[in-house]
TrEMBL record:
EC number: 2.3.1.275
The protein's annotated pathway: Lipid metabolism; phospholipid metabolism
Protein name: Glycerol-3-phosphate acyltransferase
Organism: Hydrogenimonas thermophila
Assembly information from the UniProt record: Probably interacts with PlsX.
Example of a GO cellular component annotation carried by this entry: plasma membrane
Listed InterPro entries: G3P_acylTferase_PlsY
Keyword RNA-binding (UniProt): no
Classification of source organism: Bacteria, Pseudomonadati, Campylobacterota, Epsilonproteobacteria, Campylobacterales
Pfam families in the cross-refs: G3P_acyltransf
Catalytic activity: an acyl phosphate + sn-glycerol 3-phosphate = a 1-acyl-sn-glycero-3-phosphate + phosphate
GO MF annotation list: acyl-phosphate glycerol-3-phosphate acyltransferase activity
Chain's role: Catalyzes the transfer of an acyl group from acyl-phosphate (acyl-PO(4)) to glycerol-3-phosphate (G3P) to form lysophosphatidic acid (LPA). This enzyme utilizes acyl-phosphate as fatty acyl donor, but not acyl-CoA or acyl-ACP.
Gene encoding the protein: plsY
Topology in membrane: Multi-pass membrane protein
Record PANTHER family: GLYCEROL-3-PHOSPHATE ACYLTRANSFERASE-RELATED, INNER MEMBRANE PROTEIN YGIH
Length: 208
């Protein structure tokens, strides 16, 4: 097929398919025998892994949540590392970053359902813009510790990332556009709409 003769297309497809691997779901099922798609917020992310597994085994819940964060972050980075090693241009790398997040949020293995995209987004953005992402992580940590509301910390960190990207890079190197950052941000905000509604109603749960 002509599609597979273009190496960019291959990387795009791999980024989406690898990004779609639901590590939180797999780990919770494998080690705690629970289906996080049927419990809690029904998200496949680390917060729901922690919340659901904690009911059975608090110690295991923390370990699985950390593993989920690391694997969700690394799955986007892994494809980017290979693409970078093969000399792919920055435009291709940014497309890979966007598609990895899209894969996580709209997984082809879960009927195009998925997680919130935070960990995967952090992973790919840390690869592409480490200084900007470091600022966002500091904001996330402070908000998480003080407010103890995962979604609010994530959205606050996202806002900080967008602002910092414009301050540090008025033009993103080599692509001269913030479009990939905005696309990732829009996907993440879209996946947080239920959380935003609960925040407005004062019903969003705190992380214990």
């Amino acid at each position: 097929m002509e599609f597979f003769n273009n190496i960019n297309n291959i990387f795009f497809l791999v980024a989406y398919l690898v990004g779609g691997i639901p590590f939180g779901l797999i780990l919770a099922k494998m080690f705690a025998n629970v289906d996080i798609k049927q419990s809690g917020s029904k998200s496949i992310g680390a917060t729901n892994v922690l919340r659901v597994v904690k009911e059975k085994n608090p110690t295991l819940a923390k370990k699985l949540a950390i593993a989920t964060i690391l694997l969700d972050a690394f799955k986007g980075i892994a494809v980017l590392l290979v693409a970078k090693f093969m000399g792919m241009p920055d435009a291709t790398l940014w497309a890979i970053a966007v598609l990895a997040v899209a894969g996580h949020c709209f997984s082809p293995y879960l009927m195009f359902e998925g997680g919130k995209g935070v960990a995967t987004g952090v992973g790919v953005l840390a690869f592409m813009l480490p200084d900007v992402t470091a600022i966002a992580l500091v904001v996330w940590f402070i908000l998480g510790k003080t407010l103890r509301i995962s979604s609010l910390a994530s959205l606050g960190a996202l806002a900080a990332l967008i602002i910092a990207s414009y301050v540090i890079y008025p033009e993103i190197p080599n692509i001269y556009s913030h479009a990939p950052i905005w696309i990732i941000s829009i996907i993440v905000v879209y996946k947080h709409i239920p959380n935003i509604i609960r925040l407005i109603k004062g019903q969003e749960k705190r992380v214990a």
